[in-house]
Design brief:
5 strands; five-stranded parallel sheet; alpha/beta
């Protein structure tokens, strides 16, 4: 029997597309002091130079694989997304020697697994493996109304192929996709402690609410 992976205490920041996770992670990055939590993300702004491949792969998946789904199997799509999943896991487990340092992980595998399911990837052993990864202390779920998310997308101009249904971004395809994404992600985290942070007009209030949860869970 495989030995369960040991991970430091961590929380996951999760939410639908355009919920404000990237902005919140950027704000957390500015926190001063020695007790700042490690921030683990596959976004370019958080990738070390030696891990720039992850960003390139993610962009290619969107531009090539997702945009030409007739050319690739759903399983190949999932295999490509697994590179980001494993990067997040590896960075969580390997923090340069400070194995006890608490962390905040951007989406973890939950959002990518949901994207796979919405793309029609059948249930397979790869998903079971992801679900065996270390469990977070808590999931902090950023809620956002579809209308707000649509405005943040500049009415579709900022959307990529993995954020809406249909060939071209439109309001109906976006709203349906985001509703399904929200539903599937909540299914994946239903057995975990979850704190939902409601939408705020002031981003600083959202970040303050996140900090409060992190202080309680991670110290």
């Amino acid at each position: 029997m495989a030995v369960p992976l040991q991970a430091p205490a961590f929380c996951v920041l999760l939410g639908p597309d355009l919920a404000g996770k990237s902005s919140a992670m950027a704000a957390l990055r500015q926190d001063p002091g020695p007790d700042v939590h490690r921030l683990v993300s596959a976004d370019d702004a958080f990738l070390a130079p030696e891990h720039a491949l992850i960003g390139r792969l993610r962009r290619e998946v969107v531009r090539d694989v997702a945009a030409r789904e007739e050319q690739w199997s759903p399983e190949f799509f999932a295999a490509m997304l697994q590179t980001a999943v494993l990067h997040l896991r590896d960075r969580l487990l390997d923090d340069g020697g400070g194995a006890s340092a608490p962390a905040v992980v951007d989406s973890y595998y939950y959002k990518l697994l949901a994207k796979c399911r919405l793309a029609g990837v059948p249930e397979n052993p790869m998903f079971a493996w992801w679900r065996s990864f270390p469990r977070p202390r808590r999931v902090i779920y950023l809620d956002v109304s579809p209308e707000t998310a649509w405005r943040r997308s500049r009415e579709g101009a900022r959307l990529n192929r993995l954020e809406h249904y249909g060939e071209a971004p439109g309001l109906d395809g976006f709203l349906r996709y985001q509703a399904d994404l929200d539903k599937v992600m909540r299914e994946e985290i239903r057995d975990l402690p979850v704190t939902v942070i409601e939408e705020h007009t002031d981003p600083e209030r959202t970040v303050a609410a996140i900090r409060k949860v992190l202080a309680h869970e991670l110290g």
